[in-house]
Amino acid sequence: MASDGATRLAPPLFLRTFDPNWGCCVDPPISCTAVCAAFLFFTGSAVATAQAEETARPEEAAQSEETAEFLSQGFANKTYDELTSAELTAAKAVARKMKIDSLRVCADPGNLPLSNDKREGFDNKIIDIVAKELGTKITYFWRPQIDRGLTRQTFDNHECDVLLGMPAGYESVLTTTPIYRTPYVFVTREEDDIDIEGFDDPRLKELRFGVYQHSGLRLALAKHGITNSLDVHVLSHDADLQPEKQPWRQVQQVVDGEIDIAGVFGPFAGFLKTMRGAKIAIQPVNQIDDEVPLEFNLALGVQPTNIVLKYMLDDALERGRDEIKDVLTAYGVPLVQCSNCVVSGDIPSHGTYFTDRQEKARKLYLTPLSENREGLQRDKASADQVVTETRLDEWLDDGADLNEELSNAVVGTDRERVAFLLKRGADIDSLNLMGLAPLHTAAASVTPT
Can you tell which superkingdom this protein's organism belongs to (predicted)? Predict the structure, then answer.
């Protein structure tokens, strides 16, 4: 057990060790201030709020009242997509003033170089930076990331506030601004001088090839008929207790000559090359398949209704940008170009998987709607229902998100607003929590002819 009061969950969903002082939601004692307690209304912890407010300092009580005012308006049980732009702006204002005593983090105890129970992974270092920016402390709840029901049970059981290393836009959680984008890679020994030209390269069927069990790369290989000759690394629930089962070990197999090539998640390879001096060649493969995504944005995850905490984390990540970049560089994480990530890289991105995106966008956004889908009828709308460029500018100045507003405009079939937001720099490929880009939303709105 970690010395900071962390816990570790193992199948079949029971605690090996437990310390009752690991988080601000455990009672007794209550370790959060009244501000933290007000924040906990997002998870329905009204009892904790009442207890904490008894010992609140004056300035905390003032912030607690402002937060409670926000929450009392019915926002506590709404998801991100259910809030209006004005409500999201209000949540951002609360986030800028919120203070919390403790941040409970769920992380995998045996998944280097991302995280481990000794806090040696780059995800551990990144959340330390976030905690420093927030002026709070970290307590851990250790749980293998491959456990079934991970997101639902950790939040329902109040095991943590934040999940590390979540795919941005993951549907079961609300994620922060993407921290970085990284690809799958091929790993070979430098001395072998192997450069794979694509998934149809005949050498992939001749070389001793290693891949791990649940992998987009394994799926891409299967599409090209590469299945029988693979050395499949099976993921384990107890890799913290048996480090040889951790996915990065497949890269070590290449170094040791046990296999000729490994297809792994980029950070596993960069870790051995940069931090352990392995003589390996790393080849990103994110651009050699147009159907299976082989590059991903990673972020922090919070409960879907915890919008204030999301914004707090977003702000902290932005403030810690330079330190986070240093951490990712030190661990050798291959970084892909990413305009909306905290840290962007130099590896070219695959980009959208719509090869005819521009033509589809032109038809969907600019072609007149059918008569029964006229969208906004301005002559029948009241003044407060019409979104003008002036109102958009005011919202954006107050902190509204360009991409969120683009999604709203597409849902409202407001072509003028879409054109304005695209001019202002909205990302036509940005995904909402349902994993839909504006193009998908527009396609769903078009009446078949």
Answer: Bacteria
